[in-house]
């Protein structure tokens, strides 16, 4: 890629939900392709909605079974959470006759197997659970971000990670159902993006029913200004 281009990846966690159709509609207005990190139990509860995501051209990817803190699970339970969700995702792609193009994983809460407080975040990547999970994900064929794409923090800290975090958290799970939530976050996103003239930004939002109008407003305004810079997680 050109070194001077700023690319933005849109990602939605905790999919699918009853908000998914509105989200798909908003993204089709771009049109842009996004990544949906789904929970296995949510796919099981609403299989047709998970199919809609794939049918609309987005990636349906793995966010664990029911949104556990991976630092609080045994390694065996972590593996089970990932693999049971894999089973659901594979079933979705297979039911549509599609080949799953990539395997991607995002830890619930960004909890990579160690507590995410400020202190442990600096050395947590040394813990056995973190290391075992990274190794497991790689063995299972999960693709992490490519360092060559100039990803920013937190990717710059860890070489060749097998999971995806984000570089900008909209914190939309905490928004109020008011346009001011969306506008405040939009302004701070713009500020972060203006400071960076190149590289990839991974924007985190959620596929949840909370503050729907504010989320849709955010997406509408964001895509109005930046849809040309929104890229899929993987460019073939
Ligand atoms: Zn989540």
Helix and strand arrangement:
Elements: E1 6-15, H1 20-28, E2 35-38, H2 40-45, H3 47-55, E3 59-62, H4 75-96, H5 118-121, H6 128-139, E4 168-169, H7 179-195, E5 199-206, H8 212-226
Parallel strand pairs: 1-2, 1-5, 2-3, 4-5
Helix pairs in contact: 1-8, 3-4, 7-8
The site of zinc ion (ZN) has 5 residues, from strand 1.
Q: What features would you highlight for this structure?
A:
236 residues; alpha/beta; TIM Barrel; five-stranded parallel sheet; 5 strands; binds zinc ion
Estimate nothing, just give the exact number of structural domains.
Answer: 1
Q: Which blocks of ≥5 consecutive residues have pLDDT under 50?
A: none
For this structure, what is the CATH homologous superfamily?
A: Glycoside hydrolase/deacetylase
| Gyration radius over CA | 17 Å
- Any guess at the CATH architecture? Alpha-Beta Barrel
Distance N to C terminus: 12 Å
> How many β strands by DSSP?
5
In CATH terms, what is the fold-level topology? TIM Barrel
Largest sheet: 5 strands, parallel
Bound molecules: zinc ion
Estimate the global geometry from the Cα principal axes.
globular
Write down the overall mean pLDDT: 88
Note the run of SSEs as H and E. EHEHHEHHHEHEH
Number of helices: 8
CATH top level is: Alpha Beta
Strand order of the largest sheet: 3-2-1-5-4
Strand content: 5-15%
Helix content: 25-40%
